[in-house]
């Protein structure tokens, strides 16, 4: 367990296996009760329908979250071809039904290939993307017609594991794809399902979504809320940072200078946040290279 001296409560990272039906905020509220602290935040959101990896920070670890949210993510999902919905997932009203039995696998694979790599993606209209300061989903619920701009995202892996045909509740012949996706932050798997259906001319939406990884944190570390109620299984801040970010070890003299606000000259390291450690495995700060100098993003030691 991390030190509690700064926060008056536990400090560390918790990987939750989010249950279906819970919002990310619901999980945070539940964790506040379990950990008996108000200082709880989450890195990236999961829709209520989705399950799987949701990374929470407690105490001082909340300062890592904004940087963790920008890392790569993995999902397993089911896409239903043959029906489109207003939300691009099973929670929304069906807007079109088109028979999708007997789809040509070559055409499916070609559509998948076009959704792979560096692509331009239009977020779901009921996403949390802001338009003039107001969330897109709030504008849709208020009855507004909105158009969202396409954004660059990267889908580094998109694999179809299984194809099965069935009949939807309204009698439409549909095809379900079991897929796995590895993608950059800001990618909407719902939008992948929608665009795949549009490419194939039958419409599509997401019927199941499970996030299996956020950056270096996966299902191996994930605990259910019931398990966490029994035992608050946390990653200490230093261990969490060492796993998530490139590492820079500095001697005691530089550690003191960094603690006093001096911007140290940085060695050649990967772009993005860097975890700085002093002697004795002390996690000192997250920094980034700013014209060859270490600019502090968050100070811990």
Structural descriptors:
about 300 residues, alpha+beta, Pseudouridine synthase, Archaeosine Trna-guanine Transglycosylase, Chain: A, domain 4, 9-stranded mixed beta sheet, 8 helices, 17 strands, about 35% strand, elongated, disordered N terminus
In short:
This is tRNA pseudouridine synthase B. This protein is α+β, with helices and mostly antiparallel strands and 301 residues long.
Structure description:
This protein has 301 residues and is α+β, with helices and mostly antiparallel strands. It folds into three domains: 12-71 and 215-239, Pseudouridine synthase, CATH 3.30.2350.10; 73-214, Pseudouridine synthase (2-Layer Sandwich), CATH 3.30.2350.10; 245-299, Roll (Archaeosine Trna-guanine Transglycosylase, Chain: A, domain 4). The protein is built from eight helices and 17 strands. The chain is elongated and about 70 Å long.
What's the overall geometry?
elongated
Radius of gyration: 22 Å
Query: How many domains?
Result: 3
Please tell me the CATH architecture of the largest domain by its name: 2-Layer Sandwich
Give the helix tally: 8
Low-pLDDT stretches are 1-7
CATH topology of the largest domain: Pseudouridine synthase
The residue fraction in helices comes out at 10-25%
Quick one: CATH superfamily of the largest domain?
Pseudouridine synthase
CATH classification, class level of the largest domain: Alpha Beta
Structural category: alpha+beta
Q: Tell me the major beta sheet.
A: 9 strands, mixed
Cα distance spanning the termini: 16 Å
How many beta strands in the DSSP annotation? Answer: 17
Secondary-structure element string: EHEEHEEEHEEEHEEHEEHHEHEEE
Mean pLDDT across residues: 90
**Beta-strand percent range:** 35-45%
């Amino acid at each position: 367990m991390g030190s509690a001296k700064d926060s008056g409560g536990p400090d560390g990272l918790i990987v939750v296996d989010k249950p279906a039906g819970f919002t990310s905020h619901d999980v945070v509220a539940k964790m506040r009760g379990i950990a008996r602290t108000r200082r709880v935040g989450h890195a990236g959101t999961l829709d209520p329908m989705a399950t799987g990896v949701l990374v929470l920070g407690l105490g001082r670890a909340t300062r890592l979250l904004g940087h963790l949210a920008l890392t790569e993510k993995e999902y397993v999902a089911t896409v239903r071809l043959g029906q489109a919905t207003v939300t691009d997932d099973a929670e929304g009203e069906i807007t079109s039904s088109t028979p999708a039995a007997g789809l040509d696998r070559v055409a499916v694979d070609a559509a998948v290939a076009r959704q792979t790599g560096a692509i331009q993606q239009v977020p779901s209209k009921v996403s949390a993307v802001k338009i003039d300061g107001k969330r897109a989903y709030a504008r849709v619920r208020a009855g507004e017609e909105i158009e969202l701009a396409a954004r660059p995202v990267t889908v580094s892996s998109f694999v179809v594991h299984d194809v099965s045909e069935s009949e939807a509740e309204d009698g439409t012949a549909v095809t379900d794809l079991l897929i796995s996706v590895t993608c950059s932050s800001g990618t909407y798997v719902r939008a992948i399902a929608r665009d795949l259906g549009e490419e194939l001319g039958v419409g599509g939406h997401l019927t199941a979504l499970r996030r299996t990884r956020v950056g270096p944190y996966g299902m191996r570390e994930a605990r259910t809320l019931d398990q966490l109620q029994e035992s608050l299984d946390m990653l200490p801040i230093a261990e969490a940072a060492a796993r998530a970010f490139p590492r820079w070890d500095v001697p005691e003299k530089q550690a003191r200078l960094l603690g006093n606000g001096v911007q140290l000259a940085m060695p050649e390291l990967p772009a993005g946040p860097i975890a700085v450690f002093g002697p004795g495995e002390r996690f000192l700060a997250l920094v980034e290279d700013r014209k060859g100098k270490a600019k502090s993003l968050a100070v811990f030691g």
